[in-house]
Amino acid sequence: MEINFIAIYDGSANANFIFASDSIKDCSGWSPEELLGQPGYILTHPDEREALVLIHSNNVKGERMSTVVPYRARHKDGHYVQIDSVIHFCYNLLISTNFVLVSTDSIKHTMRTSSADESYSIQPDGSIRLTGNWSNTQSNMKHLLSKAYPWNVNANLTNMQEPRFCLFLNRYTTDANIVFASSMCEEMVGMSQVYCIGDSIYQYVAEKDVENVRQQIEIVKAQGLISRLRFKWRNKSDSDDDMETLIPIEAVISCTYDGLVLVARLMTLPKTIQNE
To answer: Domain PAS spans what residues (predicted)?
Structure first.
């Protein structure tokens, strides 16, 4: 696996750093503390910045579950490092897994681009080329290049976004224990943001879906691709131990040395059923 790190940016036009895992220092020379609160564009190459703004805008407008774009990031000592960035849009956040690229011809890069919803490359003249897409390529590029930004004059989002939550999972445990959860998990699936820490993700997966989810997570860990999961989330009722709510979830998951990143959305309204 390539040298890599996790980063979280806010959903504003500036994409400010909210979090960076410790491994960002191995990739860029910058410590997380030096970057927190700084605009995400502070490390980008000037020749690529306009293209990255457009891609960022498209990710926010389209609420993309997974997008891949290689770009040049400024190392602390002044040179630029090629980074393969996987962006997961998560309600009002952008969660990214980032990998130092030796070459855009690498197998790992190819696997990421082929398994993401969309992938882009930035050409030497600053133009954008769509290299992979599940939707209509021509109409999507027209939408991307329209420059109809989703922020107001204060750089804040203008439209309500689809609720989503994010989990970081320990990739070094067979139980894929939760080490971080975003606050939206409480509203969406009734899981405590605080008390879920340390729990296995499989405690929250419907019994019939556990083996499939486990297999997909192990594939992501071994191969470095981006996986899309659909399963039912278990939400136990506080009032009756024999009752639970099964909530259909769609999620994407990617992997770094610092952990697995999972971003989830609701597929349909939950249906309360009797636990067998």
So the answer is: 1-63
